[in-house]
Design brief:
This protein has 110 residues and is an alpha/beta fold. The protein has 2 helices and 7 strands; from the N terminus they run E-E-E-E-E-E-H-H-E. Strands 1-7-6-5-4-3-2 form a 7-stranded mixed β-sheet, covered by helices on one side. The longest helix has 11 residues.
Length: 110
């Protein structure tokens, strides 16, 4: 597994604050349709999509590439459930794509 630090120029930072966020939405329960606390899909002006669980970025979709946080992508059952929804695949499929180098595991939370 290849690891490296990822810097996305257009991601919100301490300097830019939240100036390029278009939409933040909670994932919704498949049973009740109600928002799920602390599980967010963030869309940026440039089309980048981010899955955030609590205060941690778990996954980023940018320029037809998928970046998973090295330490947190499979942190808990809840994180995995909503990451699977975000990527529209199972954990087994995600592991396979990491192994094939189709997804990059990087440090998104530093």
């Amino acid at each position: 597994m290849q690891t490296f630090n990822l810097i996305l120029e257009n991601m919100p930072s301490k300097d830019k604050k939240l100036s390029n966020i278009v939409k933040v939405e909670n994932f919704k329960s498949s049973k009740s349709g109600l928002p799920i606390a602390n599980q967010f899909r963030i869309t940026l002006q440039n089309g980048i999509e981010v899955f955030q669980s609590y205060n941690s970025i778990i996954c980023v979709k940018a320029n037809n590439e998928i970046y998973l946080d090295y330490d947190r992508w499979n942190y808990s059952r809840t994180t995995s459930r909503y990451r699977n929804i975000f990527l529209n695949e199972t954990t087994v499929e995600t592991v396979k794509k990491i192994g094939l180098g189709q997804y990059a595991c990087v440090h998104l939370n530093k």
